[in-house]
Design goal:
22 strands, alpha/beta, 4 helices, about 15% helix, UDP N-Acetylglucosamine Acyltransferase, domain 1
Length: about 260
């Protein structure tokens, strides 16, 4: 018991020591009222450049210290390539604790709104640029080197019809969606909950119209690959499944039984 307490205390000290305190203090006291800022709800790790902090950050959840961790990497690759980047001229809505990996970019333009659900994670070298609205549900996972853009940034002319469509549109990702690495999500994307997206995919439409929950999609643009599949989100269950495969090296499939986890 004493050893466990010592290990826990050392881990907490390691996490606190790694915080970029100058940027953390500046951000909290710039973006929040004093009674919120003193609780230090947002931590920054590693190098971060604030391009602008003229917008708002709204926390719609119980406030705890370090509930939001920018640059707190959970992934296997830990070495940072450079400086992360943040611009908040619009509104950032935080619905609960979440974290990001390293080398991220979060850009919210003046009219933009970015809403992030509780228990979400944005992987390393991911990019989110918001000019209108991007809404990310609970337990959202954006794997490394992926990007979300709600604007085309340049107008395109249809030379036959002389029509020019608008640049931007909302992106709405529902709960428990897992986006594979190097995926691009463009304007007008809407997903059902419990959607898994294969690596190197392109999302650019309302998938709720023809894709049901617990499906796997992928490709450029993304299409249905299979149904009735979902990620195991519970880390304790993942550990137990991994232990099963370690102890049964010849097995290729684990047969899920809810009673196995009780």
């Amino acid at each position: 018991m004493a050893r466990a307490k010592i290990v826990s205390a050392l881990e907490k000290w390691r996490i606190l020591r790694a915080v970029n305190w100058p940027k953390t203090l500046y951000f909290n006291f710039r973006m929040f009222a004093f009674k919120t800022a003193v609780k230090l709800p947002v931590f920054f790790y590693g190098r971060i450049r604030f391009n602008a902090l003229n917008g708002q950050v709204l926390i719609k959840a119980p406030i705890t210290r370090g509930m939001v961790r920018f640059g707190f990497n959970y992934e296997l690759i830990r070495a940072a390539m450079g400086t992360s980047e943040m611009k908040i001229d619009g509104i950032l809505i935080i619905n609960g604790a979440f974290s990001t990996g390293i080398d991220y970019a979060v850009i919210i333009e003046k009219e933009g709104v970015l809403e992030i659900g509780a228990s979400s994670y944005l992987g390393s070298r991911t990019k989110i640029i918001v000019t209108k609205r991007v809404s990310l549900g609970r337990y959202f996972r954006l794997s490394y080197e992926s990007q979300i853009l709600d604007s085309n940034f340049h107008y395109m002319l249809d030379v036959e019809t002389n029509e020019i469509p608008r640049l931007d549109d909302e992106v709405i990702i529902n709960d428990y969606c897992w986006i594979g690495n190097r995926t691009t999500i463009l304007k007008s994307t809407k997903t059902p909950s419990y959607l898994t997206v294969a690596s190197n995919s392109l999302l650019n439409k309302d998938y709720t119209r023809f894709i049901k929950e617990k499906s796997l999609i992928g490709g450029i643009p993304a299409k249905l690959i299979r149904t009735n599949v979902t990620r195991v989100y519970d880390p304790n269950k993942e550990m137990m499944i991994s232990e099963y495969f370690r102890s049964h090296p010849d097995e290729q499939v684990f047969r899920y039984d809810p009673d196995f986890f009780h």
